[in-house]
Amino acid sequence: MNLQMSIAMAANPRTWPIFDGRIKPKGIDLVPSMVLPSELFWRQLKFAEFDVSEMSFSSLIMAVAQGDTRWVGLPVFTTKRFFHAYILVRKDAGIERPEDLKGKRVGVPEYQQTAALWTRGALEHEWGVTPRDIEFWMERVPSHSHRGAVGFETPPGVTINQIPAEKNLGTMMLSGELQAVIHYTLNPPNPVDRSNANLMADPQIKTLFPDTSAECARYYKKTGIFPINHGMVIKREIVERHPWVVLNLLEAFSQANDIANRERLAQTDYYVAAGLLAPGAEQALRTPLLRHGVVANRKVLETAAQYSLEQGLTPRLVKLEEVFAASTLDQ
């Protein structure tokens, strides 16, 4: 009889083959739930509702640093993005380059979220803008946030204001109370997010970088880093009873990722045949965007852990050997 396990994730092309049953991990029957990441991470960190789940990498290493041993990390990475390239600013705020963010009022859904970690890291290492240079305003309230779930306190010298319950990132950007916002997303109604204004459709708002694609390419060429956002965790008590589940799950997610890559290649072939691709785009689209495993992602993961220490999210440098199952470290 297979081991039955609950699993919660957001839906994307790399996880959908798990949801729809095309890929089944050996010896495991998964009971899937589709949950918005911001809600999922709060629920999992606070209540540990699911056996396996998607998880914020930043929140995971913070929990590990604080001695939370409930989780074993799986080197399955569901999303990547160059988050700093998509900072939004008001056109009347006098912010034309990253250095202009110094002294500004900048909104963020969740200060400790991985997208914000990467954005602050890029600002500091590329342009010398430190977290202490910015006045942050956070939307999520203590009772329904990752910060509240792990007991994170504001680092010395950093200003994090709480956005009042009757306001949100969107309304404060449109009113001019905020001058910029990091990682603004439009999520369906959920317990932790409440912004619903389409800022990019508003004539008062622009991206900090006029050509976001060019900035993504510049940053990757210089650093070799394509930031990882979310990973996966499994309850430690399950791994201790059934250690074999770790590699079986990793194999299943790798197979799902292979399906996503094949579907992407088929779509690229269509675009090539139709003559719809710009010069140089074909090679980029044929390059796999994401690979699972610690080995392929060690530099990115260690950089995130270093940023976490620098920014005061963790009191010490968290080693990957503390985060991921031992059987996955050479995968």
Overall residue-averaged pLDDT value? 91
Strand content: 15-25%
Largest sheet: 6 strands, mixed
Widest sheet: strand order? 8-7-6-9-5-10
CATH architecture of the largest domain: 3-Layer(aba) Sandwich
Rg is: 20 Å
Envelope shape? globular
- For CATH, the homologous superfamily of the largest domain is named as Periplasmic binding protein-like II
- The CA-CA distance between the termini, in Å, is 28 Å
Structural class: alpha/beta
**Tally of helical segments:** 12
Number of domains: 2
The secondary-structure element order is: EHEHEHEEEHEHEHEEHEHHHHH
**Low-pLDDT residue intervals, each spanning 5 or more residues:** none
CATH class of the largest domain: Alpha Beta
The helix fraction, in percent, is: 25-40%
Brief descriptors of the model:
five-stranded mixed sheet, globular, 11 strands, alpha/beta, 331 residues, D-Maltodextrin-Binding Protein, domain 2
What does this structure look like?
This protein is α/β, with parallel strands linked by helices and 331 residues long. It has two domains: 3-80 and 227-328, D-Maltodextrin-Binding Protein, domain 2, CATH 3.40.190; 83-223, 3-Layer(aba) Sandwich (D-Maltodextrin-Binding Protein, domain 2), CATH 3.40.190. 37% of the residues lie in helices and 17% in strands. The strands form two sheets. A six-stranded mixed beta sheet has the order 8-7-6-9-5-10, with helices on one face. Strands 2-1-3-11-4 form a five-stranded mixed beta sheet. The mean pLDDT is 91.
